[in-house]
Design goal:
mainly alpha, Growth Hormone, Chain: A, disordered N terminus
């Protein structure tokens, strides 16, 4: 029997191949395709049911929460390379049914919701498998941090590129063909993963926690074990609390800034887009800085980033003019990556290889739960308070949590 390949040996082999450009390009294309898909879904659904289109859009998020924990177990059990490629190919096939339906008539809301469910479920499998692969590809701390930061840039760039090319594309193709483009980007992602090579599939032997044939009981035992490890990790425990509360801040910002632009600044939807464009540019810049500046104190940097993120949105809520609001949007955008990248580093560096997928899925599920809580509570906030006051109130819980975390980790020893 061939002896298992150690993470260090695997990393040395991986560094001989240009895996990061392949992975980064594939994920950027896929992210842009996702944005085009989102635009098409929202537009088609709103033409049919108006504001209730939010229900169609929310299906993907619901399935991410529903399947997130199970997907984390499967991501740790299955061959990662095959999991990533299969997830992309199935998603490409599911999305391709939408333009096919349009060519025979029209796309129904049920069809849109079903495809969103498939995308949400498979994304909850793809992401932990990807995150569990990165430590093997980049075993050195600095290289892993750089990979996390650069991959984090892809989602931010896609938010800029996807909506930015929508107008141009609509002059060339019908909106139903946005789905064709998304299907093509999933195929591109699968090709990129395949091009990286077999190191994505390697692991240090079978997981110690895995015994074949244990069924759902075994799955639950694995999840409980991952949860215990997560709770025992001081930095990640604080980080996940802050992440849930910061997602309440984020949902309040999405809704509240639209109201602020309309009510307080008397501007149109274009101005709202400009605010988030400024956020995106600053966010990308922050990620690029983190890609080249090593983090030695993950929990401390995470706490500082959380403070900047939430205090930044409070500053935007208090902006005296639209011009000031645009300038102040640079602040929360800087803080976002300062929380995301250290949390990813803690998950990837401080947990056993066979636990990374499950711990990352716990993180993703809690993050999605924070978004759901946020969308549930911000409505009443804006109903009972003026826009600026409601925005500030939504930011306060996360701000206090990160202040407490900063005090907790003020004397944290520098990590090797």
């Amino acid at each position: 029997m061939t002896p298992p390949i150690s993470r260090t040996e695997l990393g040395e082999r991986a560094t001989q191949r240009p895996w990061l450009p392949y992975l980064w390009t594939g994920q950027l294309l896929s992210g842009v395709g996702d944005q085009l898909h989102q635009v098409a879904v929202v537009w088609i659904a709103t033409q049919e049911v108006g504001g209730y289109a939010a229900w169609v859009v929310s299906v993907g998020a619901i399935f991410r929460v529903a399947f997130g924990l199970l997907a984390g177990v499967l991501a740790d059990r299955w061959n990662r390379r095959r999991t990533l490629i299969a997830s992309d190919l199935v998603r490409a096939g599911a999305v391709a049914t939408l333009p096919l339906a349009a060519s025979f008539g029209e796309i129904s809301l049920w069809h849109l919701a079903a495809v969103s469910a498939v995308l949400g479920a498979l994304d909850s499998l793809f992401q932990p498998a990807l995150q569990a692969s990165l430590p093997a590809l980049a075993p050195q701390a600095e290289r892993l941090q750089r990979a996390n930061a650069l991959l984090n840039v892809t989602s931010r760039l896609s938010l800029i590129i996807g909506p930015g090319i929508t107008g141009l594309l609509l002059g060339l193709i019908p909106i139903s063909q946005f789905f064709s483009l998304n299907a093509a980007t999933f195929l591109a992602s699968a090709v990129a993963v395949a091009a990286i090579g077999r190191q994505l599939a390697a692991r240090n032997g079978p997981p110690a926690s895995l015994k074949p044939g244990r069924g759902m009981r075994g799955v639950l035992e694995e999840l409980r074990g991952a949860a215990r490890l997560t709770v025992a990790h001081d930095g990640l425990r604080w980080g996940l609390v802050g992440l849930v509360l910061s997602n309440v801040t984020w949902t309040a910002a999405i809704v509240g800034l639209a109201l602020l632009v309309d009510v307080s600044f008397q501007r149109d939807a274009g101005a709202y887009g400009m605010l988030f464009a400024a956020y995106g540019v600053s966010n990308v810049s922050s990620n690029l800085v983190l890609a080249w500046r090593p983090i030695k104190r993950h929990a401390w940097v995470m706490s500082v980033g959380g403070l900047i993120f939430n205090a930044g949105f409070i500053a935007v809520a208090c902006a005296p003019s639209f011009e000031w609001a645009i300038a102040l949007m640079l602040l929360p955008a800087i803080g976002g990556p300062m929380t995301d990248v250290p949390i990813l580093m803690m998950v990837q560096r401080d947990f056993p290889t066979d636990q990374i997928g499950k711990v990352f899925s716990l993180r993703t599920t809690l993050s999605s739960a924070g978004l759901a809580i946020g969308y549930g509570v911000v409505g009443p906030l804006f109903e009972f308070f003026d826009v600026r006051t409601a925005l500030v109130l939504a930011c306060v819980p996360a701000l206090l949590a990160y202040m407490a975390a900063l005090w907790r980790f003020r004397v944290e020893p520098r990590e090797a």
